[in-house]
DNA sequence: AATGAATGAGGGTTCATTCAT
DNA sequence: TATGAATGAACCCTCATTCAT
C-alpha cells in the first residue's frame, strides 16, 4: 500500500497521470453531498448529488461505491472536527465548561448542517463497520472530557460516555420544531447541573 | 341474524352489520404498523405493513386511506394511555416522583412497544393537524406534572414542558443499542437532579 | 318467464316479495350511471356509480354483472329513443328534412349527455354482442330515413346507412372543442347538400 | 476514442458522446407508442409501451419524462408530413382536387399508421400547449387549401377550416369496422360535393 | 476515468371484481 | 338480496445501481 521509498519501485504507470481531475471530482462530490444531505435530508437522491457536483452519476459511484460510503466520507470530517475540538477544549477550558462547550458545539453542528443529525444518529446506532469507528471516536472525545471532570471531582462518576453521547444525539434528532436549539441548550445545562457532584451552581443565562 | 332472545329485535340501533373480519383486520393492520414503523422507521412502506398484517394492500387502504391516518390510529391509543397515566400520577405520587415515574413509563413504553418511539417522534415533530393534537396532549400531560413540581417548590421554573418532552423523546429514539434502557433511566435521573431547586438528593441505584 | 295469467301458477314464492326494492335499486343505478358517465366520462369508477346511486357496490354487480352490461343498459334506452324518433320523423317530415332532423337530434343527444358520444362510439365499433344489437338498431333507423329519401329521388343511392352513421358518430366524438356543436350542424348540412341528387338548395340559416 | 485519421481531433463540436443504443431505443419507444396508442387509445399504459418497445420503463421515462412529451414526439412528425403535403398540393393540383387529395391522404395515414387517428384526435382536442400548436398547424394546412378553393370560386365560403378538420378527424376515428376506409373516402366526396358552389360534378367511382 | 443510458425493483395508489355476512 | 370488506392486478413514477461507450 505504501511505497515507503522515494523511488519508483513498481511498474504501475498509473501512479502519475490520473490525479488532478479525479481528486477534484472527489472533492466536488463530497461538497455537493454535504449540501444536498443538509438541505434535502438523508434521503436525497444520489443523482441530485451528482448533478449538483457537476459530474456524472457514474463518477460518483466510482469514488463512493455505496451510499453508505459516501455518507461516511461526508461526515467523517465533521466527526473529526468534533473530535479535534474536544482535544482542544481539554486544555483550554475548565473541566465542566469544556464539557458544556463541546456539547453545545454539537448542537451548533446540527443547527447549521441538518444532515449532521442523521450522521450522528447513524454513528451512534449504525451497525456498519464504518460507523463503529465514528462512534468510537466520538465516544472517546466525550469520554475524555467526562473523565477529566470526574477526576477534578466536579462530576459524578456513574454516567458513561456512551449514555451521554446518546442523549446528546437524541436531543438533537428532533430539530424540526421551532426553537429546538434554544431548548436543547437549556436542557444540556440542566443535564450538566444534574451531573455535578455538589452545589450545582445555577448558571445564569 | 337472530339476537337469541326469540323475539324479533328490529331496532335499527342494533349493529346493522357485524363485521368480525373487518374488525380483526383493522386490528391486525394496527399491530403490524406498530411493529413495522418501529423497525423500519416512519418511512416504512405501507406494503410492508400490509404484508406483515397478512392482508391485501387494498384492505390497508380501506381502513386507513392515508399514511397519516394510519399513524394517527397507531399512536393515538398510546398517547392516551400516557396521558391518563399522568393524570393518575398527579394524585398518587409526590410531585417529583410523579414526574420521574411518568418519564420512566415512557421509556417502558418504548422498550415494550418499539413502535412507540416512532409514534412519539411523530407526535413531537409531525406537522399534520393530527399530530399537533397529540403533541398538545402529551405536552399537557408532562406540563401538569411539571407545574405541580414547580408549585411545590421542588423544581426550577425555567424549563418548558415542550423542551422536557422533546428531550425525553430524543433520548428514547436511539433504542437499538444494547443497554439503552438502563442508560436512559440513568440520564433521566440526572436530568431530574438538574431540575431540582436545591440539594439534589442523589438517588441510589 | 311470463306468468301470463292473473293467478299464481308456480310454487316459487320468490315471485312475490323481492320486487319493489330490487326494481327501485336497478333504476337508481341506471340513473346514477347515466349521470356519472356523463360527468366523468366512460372511465368513471363503478364505485362512484354505486355511491351516487346510494347502493352497495355488490348491489350494482348483482344487477349488472359487468361494466359492459351496465353501459349497455344505460344507453340502450337512449338508442331506443333515437330509434323511435326516426320512426316518428318518417311520417312527420319530408324525406330530406326528416334525415336532417334526425342527424341533428343525435348532436343534441351528445351535447346534453356527454356519455352518449362514447356510447354511440361503442355501438358503432364495439365487438360485444350487446353493442351489435344497438348498432343494428341505429343503422336501421338511419337506413329507413335514407331509403325514403332515395326513393323520393332526393338523395343519391350510393351511400350506405353504415357509412352515414359512422360519419355522424365520428363528428360527434370531438365534442370538447368550443363551438363544436354549431360546427357539426353546419357540416351535416354540407353533407346533406352533397347527398342531394340535383340542384342542392342552399339552405339559409 | 480515435477518429481513425491518426490525428487528434479535439474540436468539441465533435459528437461528445455517440449513443447508438440511446437513439435506437428512443426510436423503438416512438414506434411502440404509436402502435399502442393506436390500439389502446390515448389512455394506454406507458408500461405497455415500454414492454412493447422492449425497453425498461425507466428508459421510456428518461426519453420522455411525461406522457405529454411522448405524445408530442409521436405525432409531431406525422403532423409535419401532412403539413408539408398540403404545401406541395397547393401548387401541384387544382384547388378542389388539392383539397380532396389532402383529405384522402389523411385517411391513408390513418389506414397505414393506426396511431395517426389518436394523434389527430389529440391534436384536435388536446388542451396542452403542445397540441394547440399541432392543431394550429393542421388548421393552417387545410385552411390554405380551403381558402384557395374559395378564392377560385369553387367552394362555399361559410365553412371554417377548424370544422372541416374536425370532421375529417372524426370520420377517421372509427377505423375498426371493416370497410371503413372506402366508406370515409366516399363520405369525403359527398362532403366536397356539398361544399361546391354550383353544379356538383358527380364524380364516378 | 468519466459519462450518462438502461434497467428494474419497489413504493404509492386506484379499482374491478369476488365473497362472507 | 343487499352490503361493503377483501383482494390483488395494474398503473404511475422514482432511484439505486450496473454497464457500454
Tell me what you see in this structure:
Chain A is mainly alpha-helical and 205 residues long. Chain A folds into two domains: 13-65, Arc Repressor Mutant, subunit A, CATH 1.10.10; 73-195, Orthogonal Bundle (Tetracycline Repressor, domain 2), CATH 1.10.357. Chain A has helices at residues 19-40, 46-53, 57-63, 67-92, 95-112, 114-125, 129-151, 161-173, 180-195. The longest helix of chain A is centred in the middle third of the chain and has 26 residues, at 67-92. The radius of gyration of chain A is 20 Å and the shape is elongated. Chain A starts with 18 loop residues before the first helix and ends in a 10-residue tail after the last helix. Residues 1-16 of chain A have low confidence and may be disordered. Chains in contact: A-B, C-D.
Amino acid at each position: 500500500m505504501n511505497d515507503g521509498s522515494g523511488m519508483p519501485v513498481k511498474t504501475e504507470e498509473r501512479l502519475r497521470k490520473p490525479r488532478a481531475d479525479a481528486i477534484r471530482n472527489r472533492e466536488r462530490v463530497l461538497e455537493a453531498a454535504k449540501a444536498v444531505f443538509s438541505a434535502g435530508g438523508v434521503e436525497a437522491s444520489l443523482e441530485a448529488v451528482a448533478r449538483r457536483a457537476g459530474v456524472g452519476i457514474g463518477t460518483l459511484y466510482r469514488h463512493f461505491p455505496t451510499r453508505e460510503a459516501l455518507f461516511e466520507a461526508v461526515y467523517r470530517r465533521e466527526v473529526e472536527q468534533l473530535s479535534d475540538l474536544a482535544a482542544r477544549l481539554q486544555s483550554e477550558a475548565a473541566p465542566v465548561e469544556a464539557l458544556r462547550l463541546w456539547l453545545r458545539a454539537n448542537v451548533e453542528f446540527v443547527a447549521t448542517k441538518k444532515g449532521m443529525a442523521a450522521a450522528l444518529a447513524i454513528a451512534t446506532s449504525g451497525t456498519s463497520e464504518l460507523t463503529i469507528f465514528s462512534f468510537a471516536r466520538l465516544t472517546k472525545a466525550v469520554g475524555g472530557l467526562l473523565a477529566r471532570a470526574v477526576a477534578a471531582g466536579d462530576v459524578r462518576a456513574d454516567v458513561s460516555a456512551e449514555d451521554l453521547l446518546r442523549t446528546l444525539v437524541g436531543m438533537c434528532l428532533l430539530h424540526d420544531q421551532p426553537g429546538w436549539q434554544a431548548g436543547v441548550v437549556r436542557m444540556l445545562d440542566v443535564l450538566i447541573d444534574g451531573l455535578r457532584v455538589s452545589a450545582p451552581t445555577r448558571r445564569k443565562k
